[in-house]
């Protein structure tokens, strides 16, 4: 399963880049259509050497290498000297900002393709990027979206797509000369030495490094995506896929088999690439300079000019101001390995949920800050409503406590909403990781409280009783003398139909109540009420002569709360579990996207 998941992720990264170029009209064409296409080479490695060498075989009136950039200055200088390139840079920032460059060719290791590609596109440069385009689908999508938004040419340099032999195969398939294609067999492999391509962090591995050739051919022939992918193979100690075998089943019943390997061999013998389209056609890439095609009836042979065809095609498309529409194949912006669908759904679910959370948090925080800095204006507004029910809750200390509660809740919602929304929209690993960690911390705290309340019910009951007894000592009364503590107690008793902690006698611990109760035996809130907000007793004599009929003076609030939680335990557990599951789901989506 470990190998399959890794393989599917890499396959999704490859197939997402199946468009050779996006089908858009470029916003700007070359100002001088007769001027040479000015190239900037990103990286001074072997593949860049081959490409620069190919460019040197083309007429200077059509192509010109203006500058090269590499990770270190020495490599860039040596590369420039080999090809008489006038400028060289350390790094890629200055390269992409060079105003004399039209298009950037990226020949660096795959792990850096996304970073350099984005730098070039943001700098307004066209891009021809070596295969594979990136290390995952998310990065590939971002590159294409940026190119479309800026109206720039962007293509993946799958060199075999530029071969005349591929055009010949396409023509024969489209004309129906080969009948219906039922099966494709693909083999590609050779032993690699200890190079950067053998490191997982650099985007190495058989699937991503070599699979780009075989997988893209299957999609190119069938012109659709597989409905089922089965994969297995061999990982080394670092988790790098050294060998890969895959089977793809397509909607028309067609099948494709892949066998890839980068396993080292002591003899150094290379395993040739073989591509068969059963039973009609075989494409043997035995030589980089010749691609013979074997047909039952005919033999077709056409010389391939290595990398130069990529350059000439790029030049033609940029001059015309359009993409390579004739080579466009079905995109994998859905289904493949469930990678894209899952990522897209996760992104928009997080965006919508956290945008709502962000707006609500902003409103709550704004209300809290308004109360903090301009409490009187809100009090005036509340009093202007001329409602006794609202005016009862304008007690200054209650407002102060509400302010801090609103600000705390608002800040929490604001931060969570911001991290989740911006992280999902920008697909920022940093923001989404912070969001996920934040949720997990809250989740742990909630679970601790939840478990404590269930496992230590006696302790929780004792703590609740202790809190109630400490606050009832501050109780005053209802009406004009009512403060925040009294308001809390009156609402508690009114809503839960109770009196005191265990009975009405608990109010005797409040010195203010004892000194100011007059002839009352119990507070008005202990009576049966006609209005629970305004605390109006049904029986006006109840505070003076309480009984089991007109009051709840013998039913304490502490046992009433215990009874309430016991009777509603299933609902409370269900709600808490739902909240926890939502948080877990949100954290899971965040980590999936990041």
UniProtKB/TrEMBL annotation:
EC code(s) of this entry: 1.1.1.179, 1.3.1.20
Pfam families reported in the protein's UniProt record: GFO_IDH_MocA (PF01408), GFO_IDH_MocA_C3 (PF22725), Tetraspanin (PF00335)
Cellular component, GO annotation: membrane
Assigned protein family: Belongs to the tetraspanin (TM4SF) family.
Localisation per UniProt entry: Membrane
CDD domains tied to this protein: uroplakin_I_like_LEL
Gene3D superfamilies recorded: Dihydrodipicolinate Reductase, domain 2 (3.30.360.10), NAD(P)-binding Rossmann-like Domain (3.40.50.720), Tetraspanin (1.10.1450.10)
Transmembrane segments: 348-373, 403-422, 434-456, 572-593
InterPro entries attached to this UniProt entry: Gfo/Idh/MocA-like_OxRdtase_N, Gfo/Idh/MocA_domain, GFO_IDH_MocA-like_dom, NAD(P)-bd_dom_sf, Tetraspanin/Peripherin, Tetraspanin_CS, Tetraspanin_EC2_sf
Alphabetically ordered keywords of this record: Membrane, Oxidoreductase, Transmembrane, Transmembrane helix
Record's protein name: Trans-1,2-dihydrobenzene-1,2-diol dehydrogenase
Biased composition (Polar residues): 323-339
GO molecular function: D-xylose 1-dehydrogenase (NADP+) activity; nucleotide binding; trans-1,2-dihydrobenzene-1,2-diol dehydrogenase activity
Enzyme class: oxidoreductase
Catalytic activity annotation: D-xylose + NADP(+) = D-xylono-1,5-lactone + NADPH + H(+); (1R,2R)-1,2-dihydrobenzene-1,2-diol + NADP(+) = catechol + NADPH + H(+)
Domain GFO/IDH/MocA-like oxidoreductase: 166-257
């Amino acid at each position: 399963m470990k190998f399959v998941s890794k393989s599917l992720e890499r396959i999704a990264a490859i197939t997402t880049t199946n468009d050779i170029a996006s089908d858009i009209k470029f916003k700007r064409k070359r100002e001088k259509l007769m001027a040479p296409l000015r190239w900037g080479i990103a990286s001074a490695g072997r593949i860049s050497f081959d490409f620069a060498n190919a460019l040197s075989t083309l007429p200077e009136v059509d192509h010109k290498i203006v500058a090269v950039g590499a990770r270190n200055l020495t490599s860039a200088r040596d590369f420039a000297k080999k090809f008489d390139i006038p400028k060289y840079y350390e790094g890629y920032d200055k390269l992409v900002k060079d105003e004399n460059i039209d298009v950037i060719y990226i020949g660096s290791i795959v792990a850096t393709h996304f970073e350099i590609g984005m730098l070039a596109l943001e700098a307004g440069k066209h891009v021809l990027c070596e295969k594979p385009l990136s290390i995952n689908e998310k990065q590939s999508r971002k590159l294409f979206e940026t190119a479309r938004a800026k109206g720039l040419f962007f293509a993946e340099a799958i060199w075999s797509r530029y071969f005349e032999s591929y055009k010949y195969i396409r023509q024969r398939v489209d004309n129906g000369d080969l009948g219906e294609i039922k099966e494709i067999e693909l083999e590609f492999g050779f032993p690699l030495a200890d190079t950067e391509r053998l490191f997982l962090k650099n985007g190495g591995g058989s699937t991503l490094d070599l699979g780009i050739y075989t997988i893209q051919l299957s999609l190119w022939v069938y012109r659709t995506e597989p409905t089922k992918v089965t994969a297995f193979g061999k990982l080394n100690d670092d988790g790098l896929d050294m060998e890969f075998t895959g089977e793809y089943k397509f909607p028309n019943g067609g099948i494709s088999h892949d066998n890839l390997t980068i396993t080292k061999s002591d003899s150094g013998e290379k395993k040739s690439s073989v591509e068969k389209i059963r039973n009609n056609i075989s494409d043997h890439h035995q030589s980089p300079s010749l691609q013979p095609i074997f047909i039952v009836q005919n033999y077709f042979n056409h010389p391939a000019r290595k990398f130069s065809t990529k350059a000439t095609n790029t030049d033609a498309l940029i001059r015309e101001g359009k993409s390579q529409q004739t080579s466009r194949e079905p995109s994998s912006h859905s289904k493949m390995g469930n990678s894209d669908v899952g990522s897209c759904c996760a992104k928009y679910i997080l965006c919508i949920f956290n945008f709502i959370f962000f707006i609500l948090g902003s409103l709550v925080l704004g209300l809290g800050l308004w109360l903090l800095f301009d409490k009187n204006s809100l009090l005036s507004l509340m009093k202007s409503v001329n409602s006794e029910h609202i005016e009862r809750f304008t007690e200054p200390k209650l407002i102060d406590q509400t302010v801090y509660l609103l600000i705390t809740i608002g800040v929490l919602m604001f931060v969570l909403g911001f991290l989740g929304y911006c992280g999902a929209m920008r697909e920022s690993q940093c923001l989404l990781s912070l969001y996920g960690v934040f949720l997990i911390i809250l989740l742990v705290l909630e679970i601790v409280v939840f478990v404590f309340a269930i496992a230590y019910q006696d302790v929780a009951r004792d703590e609740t009783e202790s809190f109630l007894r400490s606050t009832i000592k501050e109780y005053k009364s209802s009406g004009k003398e009512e403060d925040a503590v009294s308001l809390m107690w009156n609402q508690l008793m009114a809503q839960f139909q109770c009196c005191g902690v265990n009975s009405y006698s608990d109010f005797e611990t409040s010195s203010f109540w004892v000194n100011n109760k007059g002839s009352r035996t119990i507070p008005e809130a202990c009576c049966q009420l006609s209005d629970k907000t305004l605390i109006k007793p049904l029986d006006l004599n109840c505070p003076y002569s309480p009984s089991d009929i007109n009051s709840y003076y013998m039913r304490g609030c502490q046992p009433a709360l215990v009874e309430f939680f016991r009777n509603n335990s299933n609902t409370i557990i269900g709600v808490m579990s739902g909240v926890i599951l939502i948080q877990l789901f949100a954290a899971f989506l965040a980590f999936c996207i990041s």
